[in-house]
Amino acid sequence: MKLTKFFTGLSFLLISISSFAYDAVGHRIVADIAYDNLTDKARAQADKVLGKKGLVYEATWADEVRSDNKYAYSYQWHYQDLDDNMTSPDIKKLLDNPTAEGEHLFFALDQMQTRLKKDKNDAEALKFLIHFMGDLHQPMHMGRKDDKGGNKVDFNWFGRKTNLHSVWDGALIENQKMSYSEYSHYLQDKFEPRKTEFKKHEILQSIEASYAVRNLIYAYDTTDTNNYHYVYQFGDKLDEMLYRGGIQLANVLNAIYK
After folding, report:
1. What is the pLDDT of residue 207?
2. What residues pair up with 154 in beta bridges, in sequence order?
3. Superfamily covering domain 25-256
4. CB 74 within 8 A of CB 65
5. Every domain of the chain and the residues it spans
């Protein structure tokens, strides 16, 4: 009996660790792409604040500190609930008035950029910004309020019961079977022809792109258990969101550290 409980507990621990690690991969992909696209001056400043390539290594910090009561206030900064059928002017209005619906992701991004502009050595603000830019490009972090960004939407992923949010947080990335650095290099090669295009985009355009994917996700029939079909349908969208996130983070830091 004790042995059974031990293996049950061990299995749960391994699943928990794996789930966390897969989420970490996505954030590190975004950060690694950003790091490779920083100006020399911005990269030197980021390394000064967080250590050599700390931009990548600290990409998960904002998730980790949620277990610390001192940072309980930051939990709601990771998401921005959006209504269905929002127009570009609707989104811009909320972005320009980030506290209109409480202090969430749009507010946090605005605050961290403001803090870094005032103090370029604000390590906490930089670590938050790195992570939240990744969250912005995970479409379910702008999901519906009533299902908590897909957390309440059941999903069967290759025989394992999970939820829609978790599929986008890690399962789709895990399916690629690449490390964060391999995935980062793959995406930078894949999107090199569109790099100039993406570098011209402001945060609003990134939000609109992520929101468009979010709507496609919700429109998909989740009773379809052919997960290979799901990967086929959304693989390119996932890749674009990760790449966009990295380029957008680089754009913001290059502007702050110019």
Report:
1. 96
2. 163
3. P1 Nuclease (1.10.575.10)
4. yes
5. 25-256
Residue type, 143: G
Residues 6+ apart with CB under 8 A from 20: 63
How far CA 238 is from CA of 176, 211, 231, 241, in Å, comes to 11, 13, 9, 5
Closest CA to 245 of 86, 173, 138: 138
The DSSP annotation for the chain comes to -HHHHHHHHHHHHHHHHHHHHHHHHHHHHHHHHHHHTS-HHHHHHHHHHH-TTHHHHTTTHHHHGGGSGGGGGGGGGG-----TT--HHHHHHHHHSTTBTBS-HHHHHHHHHHHHHH-TT-HHHHHHHHHHHHHHTSGGGG--TTTTTTTTSEEEETTEEEEHHHIIIIIHHHTT---HHHHHHHHHHHTGGGHHHHHT--HHHHHHHHHHHHHHHHHS-TT---HHHHHHHHHHHHHHHHHHHHHHHHHHHHHHT-
Global confidence as pTM: 0.90
pLDDT digits (tens, 9 = 90+) for 69-116: 999 999 999 999 999 999 999 999 999 999 999 999 999 999 999 999
- Residue 252, C-beta contacts closer than 8 angstroms, at least 6 positions apart: 113, 129, 133, 203
Tokens of 208: 């609109």
**Res. 30 pLDDT band, cuts 50 70 90:** very high
